[in-house]
Design brief:
This protein is of the alpha+beta class. It has 2 domains: 7-218, no CATH class; 265-363, no CATH class. The protein has 14 helices and 11 strands. Strands 4-5-6-7 form a 4-stranded antiparallel sheet. Strands 8-9-10-11 form a 4-stranded antiparallel sheet, sandwiched between helices. Helix 3 (56-66) packs across helix 5 and helix 3 (56-66) packs across helix 8 (157-167).
């Protein structure tokens, strides 16, 4: 089958999407040149000023201020965010948003051109081979950031919605990588898209206005697990230079300090945790095998393939696991025991082991187990 994209190009854009670290002078110069080029491609005069902010959170506050919501933000008790932004720019001097001219229209033209070139079937394949590979983890990250920006307003629903709406006015910079990777692999990264790509390779989200462009730095730290989910056990999984951060365990959002609070974990504390998602994190950190041993659990089923265990949890679906012994000995002659998570509806050990191999229990007949 014909390959419609270049893997190396997709990997380059994946690296750009998840780039993190202090913003270097060269990065700022490259991003600012890209911003000016994007304005020029849109037929606009270059912004009179390019203002750098340390995170999308501060960018959203700047956008909300420019939108005339200063009083609302102050009433919500968010002065700690307002004052640094007001020290950087005069909201009244920004002018109207030019995002449609700078990003939306060029993207629409490029999508139309690529779609007409490929046709529906080949378009779908080209997307799956390029931007589709990045879309899931990148979109998840974008959604998490937007939610966290809104959460800065705590229980003030109106202000929270206002801040999240302000993030929608941004050009996503490095997080525009999925579509830019498609355009790049199809040889369409010229003109306006080339300018947007320059910013994406050097900066985070940015907000274009008639006279001012607000550009966010990339995160200082970004930690993900092998499947690409936000994950870190000893600090924030995503952290910006101003302290704006996301905490997560295998993609699951967590409160700041939650992992650090788990030094006194016990089966009783795990059972008493009301939040089901946080309880699952506790179980994983504590160790399923240890929990089984210390909680007095009893096996639900046993056969020649292993042992099926079920952990019943209040207010949550049960956790089912199969205990299996590796038939290949370790260098010291011992045999390692593994606990494999299986669907909660699993009824037999054989059914659980078969599920881990992606087959039905009736078809699971290994000549030799390894």
């Amino acid at each position: 089958m014909e390959t419609l994209t270049r893997v190396e190009t997709v990997l380059d854009w994946q690296a750009a999407a998840f780039a993190a670290g202090p913003t270097e002078t060269a990065d700022r110069e490259r991003a600012e040149a890209g911003v000016r080029a994007a304005y020029a491609e849109a037929g606009l005069a270059a912004p009179e000023e390019i203002v750098w902010v340390p995170s999308p959170a501060y960018g959203a506050f700047a956008a909300a201020l420019i939108g005339g919501h200063r009083e609302k933000l102050a009433e919500a008790g968010l002065r700690e965010y307002l004052e640094p932004v007001l020290a950087l720019l005069d909201p009244a001097a920004a002018g109207a948003s030019v995002r449609d001219a700078v990003r939306t229209r060029p993207w629409e033209r490029a999508r139309t051109e690529i779609s007409e070139e490929l046709g529906p079937e080949r378009w779908a394949r080209a997307w799956a081979e390029s931007g589709g590979r990045l879309w899931g983890p990148v979109n998840d990250l974008v959604s998490r950031v937007r939610q966290a920006v809104g959460d800065l307003a705590a229980d003030d629903f109106a202000t929270s919605s206002l801040l999240r709406a302000a993030t929608l006015d941004a050009v996503l910079g490095q997080h525009d990588a999925p579509f830019l990777s498609l355009a790049d692999t199809r040889g369409r990264l010229g003109g306006a898209l080339a300018a947007l790509a320059e910013v994406a390779r050097a900066a985070g989200w940015w907000w274009p206005y008639e006279r001012i462009a607000i550009v966010s730095e990339r995160p200082r730290e970004l930690h993900r697990d092998e499947p690409g989910r936000l994950h870190r056990g000893d600090g924030p999984a995503l952290a910006y230079g101003d302290g704006f951060a996301l905490h997560a365990w295998r993609g699951m959002p967590l409160p700041a300090g939650f992992i650090a609070s788990l030094t006194d974990l016990s089966p009783e504390r795990i059972r008493n945790e009301a939040n089901a998602e946080q309880r699952r994190v506790m179980l994983e950190i504590y160790g399923y095998d240890r929990y089984l041993a210390e909680s007095g659990a009893h096996p639900a089923h046993r056969d020649s393939t292993g042992v099926l265990w079920r952990i019943d949890l209040p207010g949550d679906e049960p956790i089912a696991m199969v205990e299996v012994v590796n038939s290949t000995p370790e260098p010291d002659g011992t045999y390692r025991t593994y606990y494999l998570r299986v669907p909660p509806g699993t009824r037999t050990a054989r059914q659980g082991v078969a599920w881990t191999f992606g087959v039905d229990a009736r078809d699971y007949k290994p000549e030799k187990e390894t």
